[in-house]
Write a structure and sequence with these properties.
The structure is a single chain. The protein is built from 14 helices and 30 strands. The protein is globular, with a radius of gyration of 23 Å. By secondary structure, it is of the alpha/beta class. It folds into 2 domains: about 5-230, 3-Layer(aba) Sandwich (Phosphoenolpyruvate Carboxykinase, domain 1), CATH 3.40.449.10; about 235-285 and about 355-545, Alpha-Beta Complex (Phosphoenolpyruvate Carboxykinase, domain 3). The strands form 7 sheets. Strands 11, 12, 13, 14, 15, 21, 22, 23 and 26 form a 9-stranded mixed sheet that branches. Strands 1-6-7-8-10-9-4-5 form an 8-stranded mixed sheet, sandwiched between helices. A 5-stranded mixed sheet has the order 2-3-17-20-16, with helices on both faces. About 25% of the residues lie in helices and about 25% in strands.
Length: about 550
């Protein structure tokens, strides 16, 4: 019997790529991918040269309930199987999925094979070979994953590559997977699966045409592999000042990582996924995947220009996903009837003030981003080390509409490390790594609320991006270190009384509400949710000093 190790899976994929009558494009050029996508009606081009596409309705966001980790003895003790996003798949089902993927790829009239890496630091970049039949998926990979560096052999993963099979627009046979994949509410079986086999080093996206499914599969893989190398993976954006100071922005989708890191006064290192090693910070990716809903070209010019700058379409390659486009070619960034999760992927080099090498030093300022839909958290607060550990573990935000297929309105959510869906290992490993690095490099940590003010969602308004930027600049510039602070007794936070460029009233959320009693009641309600979450997930697992920082209602 043939041993089905990682070499076996790589060999089987190579055979499908080589033993076929259709065309195979190995490491195709960018223009080839763009031309194929347009000629085969996978996307349309607009006047600016940007490509626009639309996915099926079931693929406008990630599908966490269709995302699986293969449960093998080799990974059993490393994965937190109690986490809601660690859905196990047995090896037999994965092998069925693998065989169906190979069979489907083998029938296509053309395939694209793209060798890339994840990680700008060649000491730990992960080689990944993507095989797909879809030119747009190939273009997305070209936008987002990094080219193979000349010194890739120095990577700790040089001889342990990963394989990604992407079949976004094909569906699985539900009768074949009955009892193996998710049962839908009407009794049918899901025809979609995003599966990761960490030990065999292969991932499969089958039936999810949302481009972010490929991106987040590889992010999850990095988050599994890196702690074994003493490297902390983070769901964050990063930028660098002229003086070399690095700032990190940790947060879930929709909290402002991309927007806030795109700062004309600072070089963008990356907008979503990074590793923190002994060398400093390194971007995992080569591109950005920005939300477009409610995009204001005047307030977010970096994202707008990167996506819609004029160029010949064969040279452009920015890819817009699920945005409302009218017949005359104009865009409506505020129309969310198809999905509020419209996106744009583009190479990092399209951001005017970006850092090409994707690396920086150790961070001096760290922001924990939350989009508070209750409207009761201050727009900024300074965290001491114990508070920082508490808020990092809690990862509070409000899950925003559209980033997952079953979320239609904001709701409170606790996502440990601001990336729980993508952090599969036991939580203590990530927390210990962060605590160690924060202490070693003495970084200032702030809670930054990009959510609502003046009332909860539906009553209040979203925090003004210009005010948020002013707070970021003040913190990064060190101007909040000597500020006078008040204590928020409910959430146990230190809130500045003043911040350059920000109205004093905005800094105290209670003063922005018309009904102070309603504010107090809402604040206590949210604090009670903090306490309940902490008792369920972390009670007895952290020091008393950290536990004492948890809001209690």
């Amino acid at each position: 019997m043939v041993e089905k190790n990682d070499e076996y899976y790589r060999y089987r994929v190579s055979r499908v790529v080589s033993d076929r009558t259709g065309r195979v494009f190995r490491n195709p050029s960018r223009s080839c991918l763009i031309e194929d996508a347009v000629d085969r009606w996978m996307a349309i081009r607009v006047a600016e040269g940007t490509l626009v596409t639309w996915t099926p309705r079931d693929s406008t966001g990630r599908s966490p309930r269709d995302t699986y980790i293969v449960r093998r003895a080799e990974v059993e003790d490393k994965i937190d199987w109690e986490a809601p996003n660690s859905i196990p798949m047995d090896p037999e089902t994965f092998d069925m999925l693998f065989e169906d993927a190979l069979y489907t790829l083998g029938k296509k009239d053309r395939l694209y094979e793209l060798p890339r890496v994840i990680g700008a630091d060649s000491q730990y970049c992960l080689p990944v070979r993507t095989v797909t039949y879809n030119a747009l998926a190939g273009l997305f990979i070209d936008n987002m994953f990094r080219p193979v560096p000349k010194d890739v052999k120095r990577s700790c993963f040089a001889d342990k590559p990963f394989t990604l099979l992407a079949l976004g627009f094909d569906k699985l046979d539900p009768s074949r997977y009955r009892g193996r994949l998710r049962a839908l509410s009407d009794g049918r079986t899901s025809t979609m699966a995003v599966a990761m086999d960490f030990d065999r080093r292969i991932g499969i996206v089958f039936g999810s045409a949302y481009m972010g499914s490929m991106k987040k599969l590889m992010f999850t893989a990095m988050n599994y592999y890196l702690p074994d190398e003493g490297i902390l993976p983070l769901h964050c954006s990063a930028n660098e000042g002229e003086d070399g100071s690095v700032a990190l922005f940790l947060g879930l989708s929709g909290t402002g990582k991309t927007t806030l890191s795109a700062d004309p006064e600072r070089a963008l290192i990356g907008d979503d996924e990074h590793g923190w090693s002994n060398n400093g910070i390194a971007n995992f990716e080569e591109g950005c995947y920005a939300k477009l809903i409610n995009l204001d070209p005047e307030k977010e010019p970096e994202i707008y220009n990167a996506t819609f700058h004029p160029d010949h379409y064969l040279s452009h390659g920015s890819l817009v996903e699920n945005l409302m486009v009218y017949p005359d070619g104009t865009f409506d960034f505020d129309d969310d009837r198809f999905t509020p999760n419209s996106r744009a992927s583009y190479p990092l080099r399209y951001v005017e003030n970006s850092k090409a090498d994707g690396v920086g030093g150790h961070p001096s300022t760290i922001f924990f981003l939350t989009a508070d839909a209750y409207g009761v958290l201050p727009p900024i607060a300074k965290l001491n080390p114990e508070q920082a550990m508490l808020w990092f573990m809690m990862g509070y935000t409000s899950k925003l509409a559209g980033t997952e297929t079953d979320v239609v309105e904001p709701k409170a959510a606790f996502s440990r490390f601001f990336g729980e869906p993508f952090m599969p290992r036991n939580p203590g490993e990530y927390a210990d790594l962060l605590g160690r690095k924060m202490r070693e490099h003495e970084a200032d940590v702030y809670l930054l609320n990009t959510g609502w003010t003046g009332g909860p969602y539906g009553v209040g308004r979203r925090m003004d991006i210009n005010a948020t930027r002013a707070m970021v600049h003040a913190a990064v510039g060190g101007r909040l270190r000597s500020a006078e602070y008040r204590s928020d007794e409910v959430f146990k936070l230190q809130v500045p009384l003043q911040c350059p460029g920000v109205d004093d009233t905005l800094l105290n959320p209670r003063e922005t509400w018309d009904d102070a009693a309603a504010f107090d009641q809402t604040a206590r309600k949210l604090a009670s949710q903090f306490a309940a979450r902490f008792e369920k997930a972390f009670a007895g697992k952290v020091s008393e000093a950290v536990a004492a920082q948890c809001p209690r209602g």
